[in-house]
User: Fold these one by one.
Assistant:
Number 1:
Amino acid sequence: ENVEKEEKEAEKKGILEKILMVEIKEKDVEEALEDLELELLEADVALEVVDALKEKIKEKLVGKKVRIGTDKEKIIEDAVREAILEILTPPRKIDLLEEIRKSEKPYVILFVGFNGSGKTTTIAKLAHWLKKNGFSVVIAASDTFRAGAIEQLEEHAKRVGVKVIKHSYGADPAAVAYDAIQHAKARGIDVVLIDTAGRSETNRNLMDEMRKIARVTKPNLVVFVGDSLAGNAIVEQARQFNDAVKIDAVILTKLDADARGGAALSISHVTNAPILFVGIGQGYDDLMPFDEKWFVERILG
Ligand code: GDP
């Protein structure tokens, strides 16, 4: 008799639960996302990435049952944070120091990115950081195209105390990189950083050039350097490089000059590669490890 009573109670409770539950409708989510959409666009997240994010959030929420009285806004806000974090947290995490330690010498890093993105400065920052962590470094001046590129790189390298391997302007960038690797092999140098050109010309295709350098050097890591101020353009840039030479990791520059840094979200979405560092100034120490959680708050304002 007692059992029967308990069963009845349970059934009553079940019915009550059902009445107390409401389903989140597409309309609720769309309304809530209107503000978010504006916020993200203002933070410089590319439009196609905002759309993809909205779909992801809808998938998480539409049809979900919540108890009457729960704060729907809070639920949606949590889903937004979760979706952004998912985009910013790619499948593969990279512990660069650990990878270099366990790699055969030299560990080769190929840097790609358009002119003005901060590539040369970033290479010097990374060389500085690697040296601080006890690794020896050599840099390949494989931008043999832009006037002044080699001297500029040498100036940076001198300041951080790293040797540059160079040929003359117009030389084959892949041959320069190859020489740098041979130089490192002969001397037991731990890391080779390859600087590359950042602009196409009519008689010279930048992506073909990147493919060739990658084929010749077989880099352990391809790093895309992107300017966080580039806004929507960064999506197209990252996609082009990713198609030519698969991007393994990203360094996002000029975050100190950027209001919100939505570019991080755009790049992660397009490349599915982790953001290793962010550049936060022009000094050689202005390189900071990327922290997704901190970033979500920054983007959401
Ligand atoms: P590259 O053409 O891609 O090699 O670009 P450079 O390394 O020459 O950098 C272009 C400009 O951006 C230079 O004036 C750099 O000092 C500046 N720059 C690079 N990284 C940062 C950064 O994180 N913050 C700021 N504020 N400026 C940066």
Number 2:
Amino acid sequence: AAEVAMYRVKQDGRNGLRFFAPEMQAHTQRSLELATGLKDAAHNAELFLVYQPQRSLGHGAPDSGPLRGAEALLRWRHPKWGLVSPAEFIPIAEQSGAISAIDFWVVEQAARQIRAWDAAGLPPLVIAVNLSATQFGRPQLVEELLHIVRRVDVPPQRIEVELTEAVALKYPELAETTIAQLHEAGFKVALDDFGTGYSSMSYLKRYAIDKLKIDQSFVKDLSAQHSDLAIVTAIIKMAHSLGISTIAEGVETAEQATQLQACGCDEIQGYWYSRPLEPAAFEAFVKGHAPDQTTACV
Ligand code: C2E
Ligand code: MG
Ligand code: MG
Ligand code: MG
């Protein structure tokens, strides 16, 4: 609805607005304000990253595995609208073209955080960053990413690039080439939201990926839905046979963690282990003095 509304506004000018219901106008107004605000959001220090820990499952108790890394997740504190979800503003940034600058800002920020945590004595973590689908059309993408990590002086091996299964399905050739280049440059590559795109599993053979992120929609009904258990088990077996490791997203309960461990899943990420944390809270979490998560998380 927001997309349609924005399109009409552009076509018809101000007069176009009178065709819309009041709540639609409000939505349009908000979308426009978000699109405008996004251009300067990074400069105005309104953007920040939170980090969600990822835990290895291993063979012991599911709540005893070591920390493996973290995913950097973008947050926007808008001066008028408050905290805006990336689910809302990333599509707007993709439409307006602001996404490139934002995604590169995220990579640089994550690289700087790696340096800061290294200096603070944390174990050498791999930080995952999300790259928008639109970035895969950039011919110089991998060089641009290399340029950033070199400038910050972080080896590319410390950065894991997440692209969604949807991107890989939409642009199979482009995805294959880009993934190969990322791999060659030393970046780790993860396929995000896996299982939502109805891709043939044999597709995976084409991609030089390191990790599969099993979408949270499978995890949600893991214990209730027998078919999901079978699907997840099949995904994990197939990934392992191709030398790809697996992580499940959106793990919220001990029961889900136990089930995933039984399915052979390598790692988990989700509220059960930890919510995404601001850097100071993350550091405390890693050092074993987790503060009250209800105040530390975003
Ligand atoms: P994603 O990459 O699949 O990230 C996982 C989402 O699941 C995050 O939502 C995370 O906060 C949420 N999550 C984590 N654990 C749980 C759980 O146990 N239960 C539930 N229900 N949710 C959980 P978030 O942070 O709102 O991000 C939404 C999406 O926005 C991301 O999905 C990603 O596609 C996109 N995004 C976030 N940061 C960036 C970024 O820096 N660049 C780009 N291009 N996209 C980003
Ligand atoms: Mg992700
Ligand atoms: Mg995901
Ligand atoms: Mg997602």
Number 3:
Amino acid sequence: DEAEYQHVFDAAVAADERIEPRDWMPDAYRATLVRQIAQHAHSEIIGMQPEANWITRAPSLRRKAILMAKVQDEAGHGLYLYSAAETLGTSRDELLDKLHSGRQKYSSIFNYPTLTWADVGAIGWLVDGAAITNQVPLCRCSYGPYARAMVRVCKEESFHQRQGYELLLALSRGTPEQHAMAQDAVDRWWWPSLMMFGPPDDESQHSAQSMAWKIKRHSNDELRQRFVDICVPQAESLGLTLPDPDLRWNEERGKYDFGTIDWTEFWEVLKGNGPCNEQRLTQRRRAHDEGAWVREAAAAHAAKHSGGTEA
Ligand code: 3HC
């Protein structure tokens, strides 16, 4: 009976065992995983737009090839994650419908514009850096398919972060104009990158339950702090400054203190009032409509060959 199943589930989570698609799980566990995995997938897909903006204008063939590879990786991450979500009994069509109609979210970070080539470096270094800080613990998430998808994603994310860092280093050591362009990009992407980790712990609606289920292994503020501590020395070696006058090493904490985040901006962006929200969703809906013929053709092909007999 239900109580027995609940007991088996609780014991498995407590023992750090993986919950697999065919295992019994509380409806709320299933629902929060669909919510988080779907929004993670949506973030990967929408995240292709800001960077794709620069593929045709990359300054060299090498940079163009790297950026194309990265954008293709993001698409792949989206597909892994939609597949992980489908193991929970939902369909990709349903999830995309919710994205297109604003009933599901994607990461706030992608509602900011990529104004110069240096933004491609800042996104790689900061946005993919933050994503790695968030995704490494997710490799130990209690839900098997999500945790396994994260292992592959994290490997590719490290390349994304390194190429961004290297791009910024080249600019920072370049002409004064190139240095200024790199500094301007870091100034615009730093605070929105900190917002990627979610609201402060005391305003996080899901953290307590997600941590009890070992979906979330560290709180939003813990991972945000970890990210700041990683970035400060990296900014120094880049020869760039982080736009936070309150940033300073705190000896007894053994961590960096940093300034206050503008949470009004965060909640405004989540409400749809960020610089690029409208543009991102319009572009996404257009891409979905223009791609309908591919989905129809693939479905027709699959149906023709589903009888198992090669026609
Ligand atoms: N952007 C948009 N929505 C956000 C957000 C952000 N940065 N941070 C929090 N939220 C939303 C949550 O989704 C939740 O709303 P919902 O109930 O409608 O889903 C609400 O704000 C309250 O936040 P909580 O902290 O209570 O929510 P979570 O426990 O889900 O924590 C999270 C938020 C840390 C983002 C968690 O969902 C998570 O770890 N998700 C997986 C990682 C992810 O989505 N990363 C996207 C980064 S971009 C990326 O990976 C692409 C890379 O390749 C560049």
